[in-house]
Amino acid sequence: MSQEPSNPPESMSYQMIGDDASTIAEKLAKYAGKASWEDLKAHLESGALIYVDKSLDLTKTSKAFADDDQTQVAAWLKSGDLVKPSAPHGAYWESTKATFECRIVSPFVLIQPTS
Q1: Element (H or E) spanning 36, and its range?
Q2: Residue 50's Cα: distance from chain center in Å?
């Protein structure tokens, strides 16, 4: 599943939700879980969904977003290990009743298919 964004922003601001004083590791654990495609559709429509290839560790990838590691995130986008899904992805996931492991790193929702 390799797809580069058509116009990647020059700079993105990654942050965790809210003014929580927890550590990044605690926040990543707090804003983690499983979700069905039905629960994630709205995030695709808003452009906030990021697909994380199974070759990457979802927690480490989320930490790169939370740490604002733009170099690493850009490299993953370029290699296709991170993808901004589109309507055909959503249609497929809906037809297969896909479920995902998720991490929220505002404004993004990072998803990785469950086994």
Answers
A1: strand 32-36
A2: 3
pLDDT tens sequence across 14-33? 454 456 678 888 888 888 89
Closest among 112, 92, 87 to 100, alpha carbons compared: 112
Helices 37-46 and 87-96, packing angle to 10 deg = 170
**Number of domain units in the chain:** 1
Position 79 in a domain: yes
- Record the pTM: 0.78
Q: Has residue 48 been placed in a domain?
A: yes
Sequence letter at residue 53: D
Q: Would 71 be classed as within a structural domain?
A: yes
* pLDDT (tens digit per residue) in 28-68: 888 889 999 999 999 999 999 999 999 999 999 999 999 99
85 within a domain of the structure (yes/no): yes
Three-class SS state of 113:
strand
The domain of 71 spans 44-113
User: What are phi and psi for residue 110, nearest 5 degrees?
Assistant: -90, 135
Rounded distance, CA 51 to CA 32, Å?
15
